[in-house]
Amino acid sequence: MQKIVLLNPKGGSGKTTIAINLVSYFAVCGLKPTLLDLDAQGSSTRWLSKRAKGQPVVHGIAAYERNSRVTRSFATRVPLDTERLVVDTAAALESQLLPDITRNATAVLVPVLPSDIDIHAAAKCISNLLLVAKIRREEQRIAVIANRVKKNTLVYKSLMKFLETLNIPVVATLRDSQNYIRVAESGQGLFEMKPNQVREDMEQWLPLIGWLAQRRPLHIPPGTPGITSGTTFDPLPTTASDTAIPVVNAVVSPIAASIPAPAAGPAANQNVPATTAGGADDPFNAGLNAGD
Fold first, then answer.
1. Which of 108, 201, 242, 281 has the greatest number of CB atoms lying within 10 Å of its CB?
2. Domain range for 233
3. Looking at residue 96, what DSSP letter applies?
4. What is the pTM of this model?
C-alpha cells in the first residue's frame, strides 16, 4: 500500500483539491483508494458525499470526527483492500503531530502558492518535516507542488527560485483553473470529466503521477490505522521487474488516448521524470491537476 500525505499548515494551499483529484485518479485506475480526512472543515468528506453511485468507489474516513466509544486508532483503520491511502491534513497542524501523521508515508506532498507568506510557511513546514518528523532527504519522500500559479509573473519566478534552493523535488506546477471548483462541487475528479474540458489541467499532473509511481509501497498489514504512533513498516521488496512500481497496469479511462506525453519543463525538475513510455495503455497518458 502507498500512503500519500498532503501537508502544509498554511490554510488555502490546495491540500484538499489535490487529495480529491488523486483519489479520483486512483479510483478510475481501479486501485481501491481510501481518503482519510483530518480537517475539521470536512471538505474532503463533503466531496465524497456528492459522488454518484455509478462513479468509481472511493472509501472515506472522517478522522476529524471524535467518538468517545472507540479509540482513534480503531476509528482510522484502513479498509482491508486499500491500495492507496491519501491523507488530507488540517490547516494550523501542530508540529508535534507530524511524526504520527507522516509515519509510514511513502510520499509527503507540500502544496505551495506563489506568495511571500506561503513561501515562508512552506519553508517552515519542510523544516519541521526534516527536523521534527525526522524524514531524511535521501529517502526522497518529500515533494513540493507549486499550486495555482500564473507563469511569466514575477511572483511565479520568485516561487520557483525559492523552490530550487530547498533541494526537494518540485513534482508539479499546477495552474489556477476553474475546473478544480467544478470537480469539488460535483463530487468528480479531473480524470472523470470529459477530456476536452480538462486536457490542459491533466497534462500538468503527469510529472506528479510519474514521481508517485516510483515510490516503493509498504507492507502494511490489513486493518492498520491510517494514523499510527510508534509502528514503522518496511518497504515491500523490489522484484526483478520493478525498476519503478507502476501506478496502474492498465488505464480504464478514455483520457488515456487523448493526452499527449508532456515535454520536460520547470515543473518536472529535480529528479522527476517527465514521462515514461507513451502508448495508450501507459498510465502517464492519463492525466490530473489542483486548489483547497
1. 108
2. 2-285
3. G
4. 0.79
